[in-house]
Amino acid sequence: MKTVRLIAMASAALILTSCNRIGAVECNSDDAQAVISGLMADQITQAARSQFGININEPPTNEAKIKAAVGQIKILIEDIRTTKKDEASSKRSCAATVKLVLPLTMVADAEKLHATLGIQSIDSLTQAVGLQRSADSYAHQLTYSVQPTDDKKKVYGEAEAFGSVAQAFGAIIYAHITGPTMAANLQSEAAATQAQQALLDQQMKAQSQADLELATAENKLAVQAYAEVWKSLPDTVRAQNVEIQRAWAKKKTADCNIQAAETSTDPLIKEAARLRCETEQTQGRVEELKGLM
What 3-state class would DSSP assign to 293? Predict the structure, then answer.
């Protein structure tokens, strides 16, 4: 039987048209399975489109990629059961196990992107909507109904509670399609950030080196001033203060080593801090020695 699928816009129903008149449609008939399979594929397509933010009334920029991805999903309806059959009605209520088989590369792409972004894993996402994974397939317990139209030319079908499953697969398709581009963008951003950080580190190192050179020059001047003042003191005064000077020098070294260690772990910054500490203490000692003249 040749069929053509049409989506009912106001509901989650799919209609098959046929060139011949048809009778009652059973749950396990080819027509019924085609209706429900098509309905699930359409719902997954719509869910994927919503992930991209595609408005149904606008030209979908990723429509071809979405359709190609959905086309790779095999929908197998198994263990079909008729749950309600009213002889006075042509409508059949049904239950079945639906297996949706995805290419492993599609799942891997989605898992990689979700891991990179640090968002809900694909396993967690699918488990949350009741899907049971086995290798490359996901099983879902589905209830649905099928019924021919009054003119016996079309079959009308409805699937219950498939929306959340469709959303999960829409997310997988979205991640599969956008993953390579998004990964490339993230890699490019990471490289740019790394380059920027390397430049910043280089600039900070140059700044620290210049600061150390300045601290060294300032300390040299302070030491020269100290030596000149000490030399200018009378011999008797120097003799009286030799032990004090030695004790002062030891304390200065110890104090400044501790102060430098608390400043930074960077060797350049640490050394500049030590030198400035010694410079400050040396300048203070110079003023004290001047008072002994």
Answer: coil
Distance CA 105, CA 97 (A): 24
Residue 221: both structure tokens together: 């001047």
In angstroms, how far is CA 192 from the centroid of its own chain? 18
Amino acid at site 291: G
Contact (Cβ atoms closer than 8 angstroms) between residue 114 and residue 122: yes
Cα separation, 53 vs 170, in Å, equals 12
Q: How far is CA 176 from the centre of its chain?
A: 14
Residue with tokens 């580190």: 201
* C-alpha–C-alpha distance, residues 282 and 252, integer Å: 8
Helix pair 163-232, 30-52: axis angle to 10 deg:
30
What's the token pair of residue 243?
């032990």
| Residue 180 in tokens | 């390579």
Helix (H) or strand (E) holding 8: strand 4-8
Contact by Cβ (8 Å): 140, 14:
no
pTM above 0.70, yes or no: no
Instruction: Give the tokens for residue 113.
Output: 């992107």
Count CB atoms within 10 A of the CB of residue 91.
16
Residue range 222-245, pLDDT digits in tens: 999 999 999 999 989 989 999 999
Instruction: Render pLDDT for 67-81 as a digit per residue (tens, 0 to 9).
Output: 999 999 999 999 999
Reference 96, options 185, 22, 36; nearest CA is 36
Three-state DSSP class for residue 54: coil
What are the structural domains of the chain? 4-191 (no CATH), 200-290 (1.20.1270)
Helix ranges (H only) for the chain are 30-52, 63-71, 104-117, 122-128, 163-232, 235-263, 267-290
Amino acid at 14: L
Tell me how long the chain is: 293
- From 184, 51, 172, select the one nearest 104 (Cα to Cα): 172
Q: Are strands 13-17 and 74-85 parallel, antiparallel or unpaired?
A: unpaired
